[in-house]
Amino acid sequence: MSTDTGLVSRRPASGAAGRDQRALLTAGLVVAAAAAALYLAAVATHPWAAMLKGFDLSVYRMGGVLARNNAAALYTWHLPGEPGIQFTYTPFAALVFAAISGVPFHTLMGVAAAVSVFALVATVWIAFRELGWRGTARMGATLLVAGIALWLEPVQRTLFLGQIELMLMGLIVWDLCQPDRRWWKGAATGIAAGIKLVPLIFIAYLVLTRRFRQAAVAAGAFVATVVTGFAVLPHASAQWWLHGSFLQAGRTGFVGDQANQSLRGILTRLAGTVGTGQALWWAAAIVVGVLGLAAAVLLHRAGRTFAGLMACALTALLISPISWDHHWVWIAPGLAVLADAAVRAGRGARARAGWLAVAAAVAVLYAAWPHFWSRRAGLLQGGLIGYAPATSFGHGDNPRYLEYHWHGLQLIAGNLYLLAGAALFAIVLVTAARVRGVTPPKD
Asked: Given pLDDT bands bounded at 50, 70 and 90, which one contains residue 248?
């Protein structure tokens, strides 16, 4: 991959380029150390439930317990007093959670947080490798972006809830960034889809980019998870797959909830009813899905393979019926793509400033801001979307839900991740159009 800057050159750096790389490494070390120190200090000085409550992890764990002891109740169980809180993943996922359900909760929560942080750093490390960064520059850029990403609200929410989003993201990025010659490439993506269905879009992406063997491996792995579920949990699998539970987005709660930063979420809030929002979403999802995958394919064919992968991930976030705030952890490797674009702008000062401005705006808009607007200000969990009032544990539909009555700045703040994602999507489309027909550079 060629470039006109020494920061990402494969040749040994010297002179000004070498100084730039050392400066980047220093900046990365400072930012990563500060981010980690602040987070550890917050963990040490706040109650456990304020930092690592693990609400979602407790639901996963309960799904594992049900899979072991009362599988027939896997999809009828709900949290006592909260009918909107249910187990919403596949039977195969329940089997995965069953394997860890015997681990003490606090131990499990600590391990989940540690593995999630590792997955975040590993994803950014792989991102810069795929973007052509090497040596000192790659290390410095990884530390810098990962340090910033640790304090994004989607990342903090993932850690707080004990969610698996960072792990799944790391698994998919690691898998799809393997050399095509490896026979097992795609298997991990298929397994990820067997746990949570949204990664199925990456199988379609493999097909469209003519990586048919990898797509077949991914599809085969996904089918294997379904078969395993039927073999071990036949009743639950029939309910999930044959009776259509997997199509019921409302199982996860009120689809118009503030935290649902997807096209369906915003359209439901604007329409004022779940049913009307669903009809609008189908039309929007088809258009955005086609455009997004087309842009991803164009980027891939132009040699911008990692940017193509990120375009596919962004498309998934937009068109998925449910994209909770913590699903937007994909912003982390997205920041790596934006930083790379700024560096590759070379001597074009205006273009470089533009890309850096976009990266800075993304970091600010998705940051884990404190609850400045709350009477009881908290350190974390306060993304800017929190400015808009949210219904607590809503399920089904109710015209009195707060999200239906937003006005003024609440409409912007409450839909902020989706609106920012739509702006990034427009940038993706423009970039893909510009590189259409470009021949990939040869190494």
From this structure: confident
